[in-house]
């Protein structure tokens, strides 16, 4: 049994349940052929965050807890009316973003914002210290 990585609240439990059900449509989402038994066990879980948390403790590993937590965080943001845009990514771009999101324990949007803002900060520092037209450091 995995240690609980996140506590699903009553407010979030409907979203979390739907998210889990969608993920279980992919037979390889849970390793070691555990998807079908997990799906069957989920069908017996009654409404409520407490029961869903118990199911998650049994069936989810750290990676799935993190994915769910990030999905819940993103859903909360969307429900607060935060401006969002939809984009299409290549599969490779998605893999890169997803890798960084898992490493940094954040959403894909947060990865983009952090990495791009970091790049802008570096570029503005370089611009202040280096005269690109003259190919020499600023004095």
What topology emerges from the helices and strands here?
Elements: H1 13-23, H2 35-43, H3 49-59, H4 62-79, H5 91-104, H6 108-129, E1 130-131, E2 136-137
Antiparallel strand pairs: 1-2
Computed CA radius of gyration, to the nearest angstrom: 20 Å
- How large a portion of the residues is in β-strands, by DSSP E? under 5%
Order of helices and strands: HHHHHHEE
The percent of residues in helical segments reads 55-70%
Number of continuous helical runs: 6
Assembly state (oligomeric): single chain
Mean pLDDT: 83
Q: How many β-strand runs? A: 2
Main structural class: mainly alpha
- Write down the overall geometry: elongated
Description:
This protein has 139 residues and is an all-alpha fold. 61% of the residues lie in helices and 3% in strands. The protein is built from six helices and two strands, in the order ααααααββ. The longest helix is centred in the C-terminal third of the chain and has 22 residues.
């Amino acid at each position: 049994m995995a240690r609980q990585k996140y506590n699903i609240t009553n407010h979030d439990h409907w979203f979390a349940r739907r998210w889990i059900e969608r993920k279980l449509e992919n037979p390889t989402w849970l390793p070691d052929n555990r998807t079908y038994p997990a799906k069957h066990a989920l069908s017996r879980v009654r409404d409520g965050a407490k029961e869903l948390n118990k199911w998650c403790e049994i069936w989810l590993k750290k990676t799935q807890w993190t994915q769910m937590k990030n999905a819940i965080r993103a859903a909360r943001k969307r429900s607060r009316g935060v401006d969002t845009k939809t984009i299409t990514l290549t599969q490779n771009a998605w893999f890169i973003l997803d890798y960084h999101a898992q490493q940094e324990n954040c959403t894909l949007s947060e990865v983009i914002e952090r990495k791009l803002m970091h790049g802008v900060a570096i570029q503005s520092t370089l611009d202040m210290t280096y005269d690109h037209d003259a190919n020499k450091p600023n004095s």
